[in-house]
Amino acid sequence: MAITTTMPEDVAVIEISKLSTRFGEHIVHTGLDLDVRRGEIFAVIGGSGSGKSTLLREIILLHRPNAGSIRVLGVDLQDIDDAAALALRLRWGVMFQHGGLFGSLTVLENIGLPLREHRTLDNAAVDALAAQKLALTGLAPEVGAQYPSELSGGMMKRASLARALVLEPELLFLDEPTAGLDPESAGEVDQLVRKLRDGGGLTIVMITHDLDLLWQLADRVAVLGDGKVAGIGSMAELAQMDTPAIRKFFDGPRGRAAQEQGQQKPAVPQSELIGSPSWKPK
Amino acid sequence: MKPRIVKPSPLESLGQSAATALEEVVALLSFVGESAVALGQCIAHPSRMRWRPLLYNIGSAGVGALPIVGLLSFLLGIVVAYQGSGQLRQYGANIFVADLVGISMLREFAPLITAIIIAGRSGSAYAAQIGTMAVTEEIDAMRTLGIAPLDVLVLPKILALLIVLPLLTVFADVCGVFGGMIMARAQLGVGFEEFIDRFTKVVSVTTYLLGIGKAPVFAAIIAVVGCFQGFRTKGGADSVGRQTTRSVVQSSFLVIVADAMFSIAFSALDL
Is A102 in Cβ contact with B145 (below 8 Å)? Predict the structure, then answer.
């Protein structure tokens, strides 16, 4: 069992090779290869049914691929035993599309749950850490006492993000971080992700349809099509490619508008950014 | 051009439903196996046991069910005594109402009615709870947080029902026999004292224990089927309703099948 806690820069945090997945006769991935580097914001896009969500589920050990290998943080997910899987799960955080918060627990209890389960801390320390993450994601302290059913969609995503961050993960997965949010809340999520990246050390992998988010935040983007990676690169690089699967993200009014806005400047004023004097794609 | 929906031939749909049913049986068996392994691990390492959900489930499935179980078995006792009274009176065998009510309630009706009520009350709640959690990604979240859903959601429910259902059956025994006593006095003029006197003579401890002994088996069926159907929920909210219905139908069905098997086994064993 090889778990390395420190890895040199520019090493792939996620290495996927020759991945194949199918549900019955429906083929989702055929020989998909993908690498995610340490410290980048990596986005996966693709049309509905292109296997983005399945890919994410396979990376986070919720679904087993039919063939191929996935290595995350240097650990091969094939034939991983329960103890190694648990150790690995504690090194990443996942923000689910619908939050995945436990309805029977308050927001603060939800955020503190991973600590209660896996760390030996007293209640006061757990609550203090949970409250700190709550504040980090921009939620008011009184939200902590509420139940998930009382929250709006944007608050639910923030609370889910706070829970994903509570064990200080090396790798953060975001499933549709802005889907179902109004433009203002979506903009706030943008800023939050940016703030996390600038905090340093964190690798962020997200699945998204949000073109603004892609143009402004993603260092590299992989486009899935026909069960493979149809194209990979920064948004500016992808915009130059001719593959039809990629073109459909850039052609059309929405694609062009986001492209113009993204190439001009980030949507948020620089003064609002924390710890990042200038923003440019890596 | 309108897209045409191709209707499968009767033979094809028959084959499909057979294949689906077979797949479900295999999935149920593997779920039983997984739960058994998790239970074994919990017994080997009691620190893994989740006490809070266990106590909560004992409260909600047990204490909460007392009024309905008590009322329905009381009514059942009344019905049995009333149906018997007409026949018994013709032969002047009024006192035999104690045999009738005592043996039928303790051996058959109390365990069965309790199990059916709990299948409708708790089994459906289990399926709905787990199904909703599957739809809202809570189960996925649980796995990614390194918490085994079986430990938190399934084992406490199985153990709670294993503890609670035999106790509820005893309660149903008491209420059912009491209902029969009231009817016996009203319809046949058999007083409480006479009834109890006859009851203690003809109803053996074996009868009582055979009835109670079925309860843990029914409990395991109800809890496992309820949780299993919950985990099979896929897609949206309509699926939660569908799986909940299936859990009640299946667990009631399996409880009655198990009861019939008990009858066959007991008659073969001369019990």
Answer: no
